[in-house]
Every structure is written in structure tokens, then in C-alpha cells.
Amino acid sequence: MADFLAENNQCGQNILRLVSRGNAILAELLRLSDFIPPVFKLENSQDKAKYGEIISDFSYFKNAEYFDNKIDTKTELQDLDEEFKDNHIEILTRFFQAFTCVHKYITDLIRFLEDLEEGIYIQQTLESVLLNDDGKQLMCESLFLYGVMLLVIDMRIDGMVRERMLVSYYRYSAQKAASGDSNVDDVCKLLRSTGYSSAPGAKRPLSYPESYFSRIPVRGDFVDMVIGRLRSDDVYNQISVYPLPEHRSTALATQASMLYVILYFDPDILHNQQARMREIVDKHFPDNWVISVYMGITVNLLDAWSPYKAAVTALNNTLDTGNIRELSAKFSTKVGKLKPVLDKHLKEGVLIEEFVLDNIAKLINIIRDGNVTLRWLMLHTTQLSPSAEMNKRCKMLREQVLADSKYDPLAVFELLLNTAHFEFKLKEMFKQMLSEKQEKWETYKKEGGERIQELSEVFSGTKPLTRVEKNDNLQAWFAEMAKQISSLNYDDPTSAGRKIVQLIQALEEVQEFHQLESNLQVCQFLADTRKYLHQMIRTINIKEEVLIAIQIVADLSYAWEIIDSYTSYMQEGVRRDPSLVIKLRATFLKMASALEQPLLRINQANSPDLISVSQYYSGELVGYVRKVLQIIPRSMFGLLDKIITLQTTQIKEVPTRLEKDKMKEFAQLDDRYQVAKLTHSISVFTEGILMMKTTLVGIIKIDPKQLLEDGIRKELVQQVALALHQGLIFNPKAKVG
């Protein structure tokens, strides 16, 4: 099949654009979920009393006239309604447009499947698309993203809040709806409240989320075939990057999370098909039950699958007490073993070019081990969601993992720091080596060729060298070798590599058979040539595939939200040792790799959404970086406070004239030493943050100088506000003069 994503392949381009749109819609939903007007939540009695008569859920549609008349007959309600509309119509329109995009997305996907079946795309069928690597990935992603949209809407925007917002939009935009410009009805049917609530103590509704997923039916054969592909194939070709069998579930983690969501479109498998569920669990969840679905949204399978008989039965093997004990102990041991290994490799002068090129497989194994360990421990020790918290077995499992793995969050955090720093150093080295690869190859080739040519001249008798007799055979042989070296072609690395190995062997043999060992200078020339040929082989092995493998293995998208639980350790570490910022920088860059998941398809489709989606995720990450590093200005102000206390309460003011015998009394050496020490500590903090260098996080550049200045301004505002709050106290009973 021709390239599925080629610009002239209409079928590939359509599904790619659809998936790109899906990722952009999700970014918009996540962005908007932080800006829900609190008034729609009607959480306090004040809001209920004031707005209760102008805000309504879907019960409005049963009695719209009565509701509107009630507002029209009271002037104060009319004024309030008008004011409410002016204040909220903009954000309501934005929410409604996002909801409409979700509805349009699924209708476009259904239309695409119909077009595919009707043969509109020449020589393309559902089966042929699913046989193509890119086609298979995009078809799976298209359905998965729709499922994630529905889950995100329900998790982040409460059902009743959604209904109130939709009703308010419907009322305030009645003309649009009447003119047929809007599909309010369809959007309302799709996104009406499901009864689900993320509030602590809330019970899960019956048949949730499958009844929610079936509001707009998706073709059964498509769902079946997608599940079939995810069950049996390595959809993203990840197993080659994770060759060890024990890492298989990590290799398949992306498609495992997709399978989790897509199974809700065919709940019969979860309920009744034990053989299928057993196959799914054995392949994707043999050693894990907490998964990351999309950009750090985590799910505990025991809690999520508790209503489904076949799913829970299949999962019981994974959740066996002995299995959990074994897994917890294994990863606990790994944390202990990896620490000295990473410390050794991070020492100055260890990661040099020669060492890296000779040990690349071992180094990638260290990165792989570190990341698999981090993934398992961070996911399986994370705080339970409110619904999982109510599940007794979920709580027991988490407590068992914490106990059996002797979970130490500080040790896990240190492993994260060191792994990120190690990856960063290795990646930077490889990038540099790749950029210099051809230049170095040519240099080594030239040096090796010149030495062999010189030997040829030595044996011809034209170039004098101590005690070397003329030898026409050797002269001709070395001249031929020089030709062979100069004919090596950089653009054909496989053939060049084979030739170089043969040349090295030939040089070793000629040294033995012609008793050339007796002449130290000739030996030196041969040794140098072999050294340069070895360097050429090393240089051939510098491949971009290594960088790609590191990038895949180093993925941290699963911790997009979990990472927040390690903030206190980051801040405490920086407070104790400001130079830790260097390692933190590598960790932030590792987190930025999570942006690739939502941006990949948007970028491939050349979508204009690329900038807004990049800005959203980059902005979130930069906000987190600022939050972590705010500890530096805060610590600086803490030290300044101590200096001020010393200078105002303990250090005496030195008079203009001072008697000699009072010199010691006014010297106050200990106090002045403390001031100097504290002042030095402040400069160490500023140096620490400046060590971070200018860093590109996603598409936003972080300038450490600006970061420090903003942090100082923020802390200064807080200090001044606190001082005024505590210092300016007015007595309300005091008489006004």
C-alpha cells in the first residue's frame, strides 16, 4: 500500500485530521475545566438564593414557558438575568463550542466509517486500513480519543453544572438555535448528566460509563476490529525498544490504556467474555493494575472494573497477594541497585565519548530499568481517587504495595532526578556526536590512510626509516591498503563496516607473518592505523535510532499529575542544596516529553491548532516549574528576615567616635559572622537558579533571571501584604477626628 499518510491519500489525510482535531478538543476541554464559573455549581446558599431562579438544569425543557415567564414578570429578575448574561455569555459560548466539537467529532468519525464502507476511498476498506501500521494506529486513536473526551467531560465538568451551562447558553442564544444555526438538542442529548460525581462518597451510577458511551452508537464491527488489533498486535512497534519479557507490559502500556477505554464501547466483553478478558489481562496487565489513560489521568482497574464479572475474574490473577508481594519487592530492590549505578555514571569524566560508544546497549538498559521502576512505583503508590478510596480492596492493595516495597518517596524522587539527569547528559552527547559524525569519520579515514601510505613509501625505500629494508611486495600491499581505506564510503555504513573489520584483520596478520614486530616504528604506524579504523567503526554506530529509543523509554506522560505529590521533596532538596536545580532542569525537560503524545498527530496534520495546544500544555508545565522554584525566593526572604533581625536587635550601632577599650564590645564578631554567612547563603540561592540556564519547556522559553525576578516580586508582594495586614489594625469603635 502506498504511504497511508501521503498528502495525496485522501483516506489517510481525513482520519489523520480527525485524530489531530480530537487531541485539540481534549486540550480545550482540559483548559476550560479550570475556568468553570463557580456560580453554576450553586454550592452555597448565597448563590442559590440569588441565582436559583435564573439558573436551571434540563428540567427547564419540560417547563420552559413557565420558567421564562417567571423571569419576565419580575423586573429585578430581568435585570439580574441580563447582568448574568452579559457577564457569562462569552465563557458559555466557549464551553458550548467545545461541546459541539465533541458531537461533531463522533458524527464525522461515523461518516468516515460509512464512506469507507461505501467505497468512496478507492481501494481502501476498513480491513485494508487496519492492516497498515499508520492506519491501524489512527483508527484505534480515533475511537479512543472520543472515549477520553466523554470521560474528561464527566470527570472535570460535573453533570449538573454542564446542564445548567447548556440551559443558560440555550436561553441566551435562542435566536441562533431558532435559525437552525446550532445543534443544541443533539449536544444536550449527548452531554446530559450521567449521574456520575467525582466528589468523595459519591456512588457510581448503574451501567456507567457504557450507557454514556452508547448515547451515539458506533458501528459494532469497527469496535470489534479495533479491540482485536489492540489485543493481538504490537500497534506502536514498541517491543523492539523493550526487548526484555519482563518489560512487555510497559512496552504495551499505550495500547493498554486505549484498550481500557475502548472496551466500554463493547461492555459484553467486560461482563461475560472470560476467555477474551483473560487474554487481555495476561498480555497487558499481568503485573500492573493502575494505568495512565491520557496526560496523567490515572485509573485503578480494580475500582473501574468492579461491576464487570469477567474483567474482575481475569484481573484476580494479577491481584494475587503473592504476585503483588513479589512485584513490590522486585521494584524496591531495583531502586536500591540503580542508585549506585547511576551515581557512578554521573560522576564527572565517566560519560566520555569512547565509553558511551562502547557501552551504548548497557547504558540504554540502565535508562530502561530506571524508567520501568519509576513507572510502576509512581503509579501503584499514587493517592487513590475518591471512588477507589471507598473500595476496601483497593485500599488494602495500595497499603500492601507501600509496605512490601518499603516505599520511600524520597528514594523514588532521587531515582527520578538521577535518571532524568543521566538521560539528559546521554542525549546531549549523542546529539553532539551525530552532528559531528561525518566530519570525524572523514578525519579518521584521512589519518589512517596517510599512515598506511607512509608505510608504503617506507618499504619502497624512498622514505628513510631506521633499519627498514626495501620490500616491493609490502610496498605494493600497503599502497593497495591505502587505496582501500580511501575508497570507504560514509553513505554506505553497512558495507564500510564490513570492509573496516577485514582491513583491521589484514593489518594484524601482516604484522605477524612478516615479523614486523621487531621494528617499533612500523608497529606504531600499524597500531595507529588500527586505532583510527576502530574509531571509524565506533562512529558508524552513532545512529539516530539510539536517540529515538531513549525518547520512547524516557516517557513521563503518566506522571503529568502524579508529579505534584513530589513537589515538597523538590523544594526541600533545592532549599538544602540550590545546585540541585541542574538535575531538576533535566526532570522538567523529561516532563516536557509528555507533550509529544497530544502534539504528534496535530503536527503531522499541519494543523493550525498546534500553537494553541502547545501553549496550553507548555503553560501548565511552566506554571509547575515556577511553583517548584518559588522556594528559592521564599528561602531568600527567610534569610533576609534573619539578617534584619540580627541588624536591628543584636548588632549595636557603632558610634562615630569609639574608645579603644570598647572596641571588642562593638565588634560583635559572632553576630557579624552570622550576617556574612546568611548573605553568602542568599548569593548561593541566586547562583542555584541561574545554573538552570535558559530552557525551552515545550514552546515556552524559561529565562532563569526572569524567573528569579518574578519570584522575588511575588514574594515581596506577599511579605508587604502580610506586614500591612498584621501592622495596620483599626479599632472600629475609635472616634473619627
From TrEMBL:
Organism superkingdom: Eukaryota
Pfam family, one: Strumpellin
Family indicated by similarity: Belongs to the strumpellin family.
Name under which the protein is recorded: WASH complex subunit strumpellin
